[in-house]
Every structure is written in C-alpha cells, then in structure tokens.
Amino acid sequence: MAPVIEVITERVTLGEGPHWDEATQTLYFVDIFGQAIHKYVPSTNTHTKVVIEGGPVTMVVPVEGTSDQFVISIGRKLVLVTWDGVSGKISNSELLIEVENKAGYFNNRFNDGKADPSGRLWAGTMGPEPEIGKLEKEKGALYTLIGKHQVKTHLTKVSIANGLAWNLELKKMYYIDSPRRTIDEYDYNIDKGEICNRKVVFNLDVHNIPGVPDGMTMDTDGNLWVAVFDGGCLLHINPRTSELISTINFPARQITAAAFGGPNLDELYVTSAQLVVNGVKQAHPAGAVFRVTGTGARGQPGFKVKIPK
Fold first, then answer.
1. DSSP letter at 303?
2. CA 272 to chain centre
C-alpha cells in the first residue's frame, strides 16, 4: 500500500524542527520567520502557538524532566523558555549563550538543532541569506552545549547546518550541511560528545535529485528519512549501503524536516515552507505540516535536552 499523506495544520511561513514528545503525544515545531513555537496535539486536533520576540526562532527542544521548558534559538542565541503550551506569551526566558558575537558574523543565525540520545544539545548556525538562494557560505559552525553558558565547537566553515540523526548501535552520527547536497556520516562517541572521520554516505548529485537536503530522522531499522527543500520529497535512505530505498512526493516543493510520532511511532510528521523564491509564491498546502502513514517504518521519539550545570 502506498503511503497516505494528510495536511494536518494551517500554513506557516517556514515550518521546521518537528519534535515528537512521546509522554504527552504532542508535536512541537517552529515557524522560523514567524518567530513562533507551535504545538499540535493529534488526539484533539488542537493547534496552539506562541510568538517570541527578538529574531528568527529555528528550533524547539523540550527539557528533560519538565513539561513546560524548552531550549530554543533566537538568532545567534540559545535560550531556555517556559511555556505552558496554551498561553500567547512565554512566562520565563533565560539566555544560555550567544555565539559568533564578532564582526562579520552578527547576521548569522542558528538553523537546526536536536538533543542526542544522551540529552546533549547539538545546534548549528548559518551565514546571512538576505534572499533565498543568496547565502554567504561557510560562515556557520556546529556546536554542543557543554555548560549552562558554554558551547564546544565541532565543525567550522558550515554553510547551512541542518539535519541530525544518531545510530547508537553503529556509533554513528549523521549530519547535513545543505549546500553540499550530501548526507555525511561521522564516528560518534556518545560519552565524550565527539565526532570524527567524515564520510559521505549519500549524494543527491549521484541520484539526480533536485533541491537540497534539509532536516532528517532515523527509523528503528537504522535508515534515514531526509527532507528535500525545493525537491518536494522525502528520501528513504540506507546510509550503510547508500541505497535510495524509496521516495515520497508531496504537494509542496519546500519540504523541510521530518519526525516520527503517533502512539506507535509509525507516523511521519513532515514540515514545509511557503517561501517566495525568485518572485514565485508557493500555493496551498505549502507551509503546512503533513502526516504520512502507511510507510511500514517506525522511529524513535525526540530526545529531550538535559541542561548542563
């Protein structure tokens, strides 16, 4: 049976960073340029949001042991916020750290971030992009939060820090720097929080796939599901063999990220955007969140972040 695609939310400008909270059966995601955290509860079809002032909001990661705290990014800042999931305002905000606070980098911003299986936050930046497609390349970096107000730099000369996924069994981390048009694999030490030995495991050029890889997630078989921005699809990839297992096409070109969710973790929640590129507007349902069922795959819930001392 072919996968079934449903539109489940209203449209946003640039949907990103879906995170499934298994405990509450809730999907969180962001609208980057709408500067908002969104919460969607499938069981009640309830959709709420809170707008955050100060700059693009590009990730939302729930904090371990809490029901209302999240690490988000605002521009170049990582911020701990408290939100009850209903109110139109956050109740508390604490700056954790501001990165790249130097001449030539003030217009950078965070882009994607996730907690790894140990609760360690990985988050990456990108250079300014005054128009879509006109990016200052190799100005970003990839960090981990190693203290409440301290980060460690793992990669530099990053253009657009994007998708992250981990395979604990193989001690691998998968990572995307979008303009490279590759999915990269690193040896991953969960205890030390270190990566090394970059290896390309999938190249969109080899498969003649238009667009750029964006966010991604991993299923319980160790295969990746990669969103393709400006390619209108989700790629199902075996990173051990570089095989393209299947492709799911969407009624929107700007597919941004995916996360497994649902009671059995067998539903894919896929975010999208409706950015104007070269004067071309994206028609409905671009910008909505899609739910995909019937793939036969299962995933893991989103890992929550543990705030370091």
1. P
2. 11
Provide the b/e sequence for 83-117 (b: ≥16 CB within 10 Å): bebeeeebeebeebbebbeeeebeebbbbbbbbbe
Q: Is 230 tagged catalytic?
A: no
212: three-class secondary structure by DSSP: strand
Residue with tokens 């299923």: 219
* C-alpha distance from residue 126 to each of 57, 138, 178, 191 (Å): 13, 8, 10, 27
Residue of 214, 219, 221, 266 marked catalytic: 214
HEC string for 229-296: ECCCEEEEEECCCCEEEEEEECCCCEEEEEEEECCCCCEEEEEEECCCECCECCCCCCCCCEEEECCC
Q: What is the mean pLDDT of each run of 10 residues along the chain (309 residues)?
A: 93 98 96 97 97 95 97 98 96 96 95 97 95 89 97 98 96 98 98 97 98 98 98 98 98 98 98 92 96 96 93
Residues of the binding site: 16, 109, 111, 129, 162, 214
Residue 57 and residue 35 in contact, taking contact as beta carbons nearer than 8 Å: yes
